[in-house]
Amino acid sequence: QVQLVESGGGSVQAGGSLRLSCAASGIHFNIAAMGWFRQGQGNERELVAAINRDGSTNYADSVKGRFTISKDNAKNTVFLQMNNLTPQDTDVYYCATGGVGYFSRANYWGQGTQVTVSA
Q1: What CA–CA distance (Å, rounded) separates 118 from 33?
Q2: Which of 21, 49, 78, 119 could disulfide-link to 34, CB 3.0 to 4.6 Å?
Q3: Residue 79 pairs with which residues in a beta bridge?
Q4: 3-state secondary structure the chain
Q5: How many other C-beta atoms are found inside a 10 Å radius of the C-beta of residue 107?
Q6: CA-to-CA distance for 46 and 33, rounded, in angstroms?
Q7: How far is CA 51 from the centre of its chain?
Q8: What is the pLDDT along the chain (119 residues), one digit of tens a residue?
């Protein structure tokens, strides 16, 4: 059974940094595409960053140059390094699997981790 467990959320002042981690089990992690989402204002979660099997990455325009997604296949863990955080980054962040190879659509989700950025 697929399990994704996020950690690393918390509270930080604007301009600060946080590193989120997502430990995965029950999937072939080394060939999986993984992504980080955040809830946003609407009902649909926003894709923040994705990393594909070949290590290529994609980012939302709002986080380009500030966030970095990475993947450690030996530890079955995907990370999201978030720098220069702003209050607009405040949200619940979710880890998701995105299929094999290139990220297509989220199919399994973690429980979410809260990130709060104060001005």
Answers
A1: 32
A2: 78
A3: 21, 70
A4: CCEEEEECCEEEECCCCEEEEEEEECCCHHHEEEEEEECCCCCCCEEEEEECCCCCEEECCCCCCCEEEEEECCCCEEEEEECCCCHHHCEEEEEEEEEECCCCCCCEECCCEEEEEEC
A5: 11
A6: 16
A7: 9
A8: 999 999 999 999 999 999 999 999 999 999 899 999 999 887 789 999 999 999 999 999 999 999 999 999 999 999 999 999 999 999 999 999 998 889 989 999 999 999 999 99
